[in-house]
Amino acid sequence: MNFKKIITAAENREPWAQRKIVDSYSSYLFLIAKRYSDSIEDAQDILQDALVLIINNIQQFKSGENMFKPWMKRICINTALGKKRKKSYTHETYPGEMMSDVVQEPKAVQKLKVNDILALLQYLPELQKQVFNLYIIDGFKHTEIAGMLDIGESTSRTILTRARKKMQSLILEQNKIRIDESLR
Amino acid sequence: MNLSDNEKYLRDLLGEGEELIDTEMVWDNVEPRLKKKRKRRFIIWWFGSGFLGLVVLSFYLMNGIPDEIAQETVPHAKYNPIAQTNNDAGIITPELEKELEFNSNNLNGSDNSKLNNVANKKGEINIAKNNRSNYDINFYNLESSNGEFLGMNNFNTNNSINKFPLSYHDNSIADNINTKFDESENKIDDSNNIDNEKDNKVNIIRAIPDKEKSKSEKEKEEKEKAEKEKKAKKKKTSSDKKKRKKKKKRKKRAWKIYTTPYAAVAYPIRSLKPKANDGSTALKSIRNDYEKSLDAYEFGLNLGFAHKRGMVFTTGLNYNRIDERLRYEEVEIEETIEPGTISVVVDGGGSIVSEEIGMIQTTTIKTRDISLYNKYSFVNIPVGVGGTILIGGKTNININLGMDFNLFFKADGYVFNENKDVIRLKTIMKKKAIGPSLWLNVGTAFPLNKNTALTASVYVKQQLGSVSNEEYELRQKFMTPGVNLGVRFLMR
Fold first, then answer.
1. Among A87, A119, A141, where does a domain finish?
2. Do A15 and A78 sit in the same domain of this protein?
3. Contacts of A77 in chain B (CB under 8 A)
4. Per-residue pLDDT tens over the stretch B452-471
5. Contact A136/B246, CB-based, under 8 Å?
């Protein structure tokens, strides 16, 4: 089906076009939603809210097909962040002691599957998880992240450094557990 | 952006990856929250058909005024007591479920032979309840199947209730029934026929009301309804609450379109001014003397365009009617001359010499009250502008000011000239349009659901033009304060 035709039909509120968008992009958006949420239920809610926003505002999308996914991704992330913002959470306080340096094993992460990484992300404090997702996976700059999370640019850098270290240690730990389990 | 190999791997893996999800379930949750296709056609058809219906109804009402308005007189009670109750004629209550029959042999009126011996008669019948047990029965316009006129009002009797079949012995029967009957379409039900004398039965043809649903059917329907409601409640999940919150957040449209079918009653106040200082002053006083009452009603369809900031533009179509009742006393003088005393002159032998018969002249004066109805009909296009103000943070008050532009006007009825003769109104008041009227409307709306509200308002309308034309020596304008009720539907 021609992409342009679907978008035009969706702008005209044609149900078949709206359904097509849901069918084609739900899986893509669901993974993004999962990265930013604490539970499957939360991720489903984010996905649904994001899809409603996308389809109801489809007339605002003016670019070509290659820009559709990034446009949707942005809406999905904003929806997730908005949802988190609503929840009353206390800002994480960072312990004074630095995390112990961990020995990097270059290939360790590549042994992990998507669900393993998603599970590890859940071990990060909320703000660290958001900054890690935004910077490392979604490719936003610190300036943009500062605006999105309503924090300072330098704070964003600090949080990212801590998130990176924490993630590395989590990955190594995960691998150790795997090795131990395989030796048993 | 410096990323390690591991981080690049993560971006590739998660950034463009997918996680399978049941899209059917996602669609089911998303679909109700999506904007629906605009139903412009529906709006056009809905409003169009309402508009057309109103035009047809207006023309029906304007042209449905009979020419013989003068015959709509109410004779004095002493001449025809039944006519006093004829306003309810034609109403047959559900209590009269069974066929209403009676035996015409029981009628004590004059010349029953015509009624009894002619088959397949048709005509009109009026049954009026006099007290708890007696009825007056009147036949009108009776004719046989071949069109022979059998009489009018000939068969009049006071029958005891005992002469009616048992099915008629119900005190809840309507006090007055006036309907047509036609024996050729007789549908006598033998089960109700008490005395089995089919030949002399008069069967009243009537509309049989829809049979009421049986109790078991009603209970079944109620149960099904309750079950459906339960199921619907269960389906509501936490996401429903979120949906509601989202809906609240949705941007309001700048303009909303409403349509409001409405009806109003009003108490008209008429200003009557002579055009010149000639005999028309007398004409005014005659009109004032004979005028007994004025009443008015109005119905229509309004189309409102409401801006989110509160400004409202309205238009539509409405039908207005003002009825004026005039009453006067008609005097009829009857003079009769009858033989009276006899004067006889007798001679001495006792023989009558001359004889003279004296005549007595008797003058009888009969009076009767006659009511005349003048009917003024208007079809207007209203154009108004207004706004909504919030009082006490809760109540919305709508204030609208505008004009009704008259499309059609018709006046019919009778008035009096300087000599107090009754003359036809439309011959001297033939005016096709009467120009604009100014109105002010203040009201409020009570929401019934998301898209519907009950509207109530008070209004006052002032005609700027006279309803009489130049030939009539009086200028008459109406001011109509009234109360308006309607149902407002949000179209988009």
1. A87
2. yes
3. none
4. 889 999 999 998 888 876 66
5. no
A35 touches chain B (CB under 8 A): yes
DSSP calls for B426-473: HHH---S----EEEEEEEEEEESSSSEEEEEEEEEEEESS-SS-TTSS
Beta-carbon separation of B35 and A19 below 8 A = no
Q: Are residues A45 and A114 in the same domain?
A: no
* A98: contact with B, CB 8 A cutoff: no
The complex's ipTM?
A: 0.83
Q: Which of A87, A117, A132 is the last residue of a domain?
A: A87
Q: Domain containing A55: what range?
A: 3-87
Let me know: does A132 contact A121? Beta carbons within 8 Å.
Answer: yes
For residue B37, the distance in angstroms to the closest alpha carbon of chain A comes to 5
| CATH assignment at residue A82 | 1.10.1740.10
- B363 close to B337: Cβ distance less than 8 angstroms: no
Residue pLDDT, tens place only, B172-198: 344 555 556 555 554 333 333 333 333
Is A150 in the B-facing interface, judged by CB distances under 8 Å?
Answer: no
The token pair that represents B185 in the structure block: 């379409």
- Burial readout B293-313 (b: 16 or more C-beta within 10 A, e: otherwise): ebebebbbbbbbebeeeeebb
Task: Report how many domains make up chain A.
Answer: 2
Q: Are residues A10 and A78 in the same domain?
A: yes
